């Protein structure tokens, strides 16, 4: 018996794009499985194993039967360890009820964005009604007064999320998922892809709800200097409705003299900052799925409510491993320092090598494990058996085809002039990849003018 099935999907799902970096990785994987020796510079995860001390803590947790649900926001043990870390390393004071542990920082970002941006419905109205116009929030020792903006509820349908480009692929899609409008703020390679405060100022309106700052940045490796963050904070402080989502997931992967500054540590910013961090990148724990949000209690509690109906707590085993990770010492101690040293050596090699290539523009990457190279000089050139390079997508297809190197087109990050290389690969494969890219670029010719 056949029946008719409605296969339509929700407008929200239809409005978001699948992750483009995952798509390229899949294409590269298919070629690798077919026996093509592709060098994968497309992945966003460290090539190192999780440090043994952390892995052992996970194994011990399983052996000791720590295999049940934990409290929805995470174990008190882990949240207290996170509070100590944020105080000691970042100079920001939180209590354990201002921390929400999730299955990765991506979940933390999704929940935070939905909690502050989604169109108002009865529940969110109730949530906002639960607060008086003026509310005292506790920031460590000091008490700050926060105004609940009168248009917070009525304008919720028009909330905007401001995202500097090049951006991590998921921010705009997460904004759409929350039924908010992503507003892209362009940056320039000459400014090291750092947000120009004047650009920010020109794009801010009454509808602006969330400014995303990612430092160290995926995909550019840029690190925001404290002085620039202070200038941004000055502007932000003039907009009562504007919150800041500070994604600090790469914080320990940073190269001197660059220094990491937590946005919430700047004067007046604690009460409007949603600090995101996680274990995936700095502790090589992508598969453990562990991240967290720190922020004022009413935002964190709202995210916790979402999480309680969505996934419940993060993995109990991963949380035990997270405690061990934070126990490794300042900035992850020796195991993290060893990984950062290797990343720095690779960064130095690539920055030096690409810096000497004709037609390739490079910024000064100071953190994370990515380079974002401007190759727009090659657009309009052609190669035999390939055709014309039109944009970042055809450029990356060309690299896959001729250099057998997988990288991610800049269009995925909102900047079509370039492409992203992840140097979470051994120095030997990076050297081989560079030589192949160099050779492939030499084959590109401008078509003769007719
Ligand atoms: N933020 C940024 C900037 C990232 O690059 C990633 C992972 N690619 C995440 C957040 C999410 O990390 P996870 O969910 O693995 O903790």
UniProtKB/TrEMBL annotation:
GO terms for molecular function: aspartate-prephenate aminotransferase activity; glutamate-prephenate aminotransferase activity; L-aspartate:2-oxoglutarate aminotransferase activity; pyridoxal phosphate binding. Keywords: Aminotransferase, Pyridoxal phosphate, Transferase. Its cofactor is pyridoxal 5'-phosphate. Pathway: Amino-acid biosynthesis; L-phenylalanine biosynthesis; L-arogenate from prephenate (L-Glu route): step 1/1; Amino-acid biosynthesis; L-phenylalanine biosynthesis; L-arogenate from prephenate (L-Asp route): step 1/1. Coiled coil: none annotated. GO terms for biological process: aromatic amino acid family biosynthetic process, prephenate pathway. Residues 37-122, 153-429 form the Aminotransferase class I/classII large domain. The keyword Transferase applies. Belongs to the class-I pyridoxal-phosphate-dependent aminotransferase family. PANTHER family: ASPARTATE AMINOTRANSFERASE. This is Bifunctional aspartate aminotransferase and glutamate/aspartate-prephenate aminotransferase. It comes from Trema orientale.
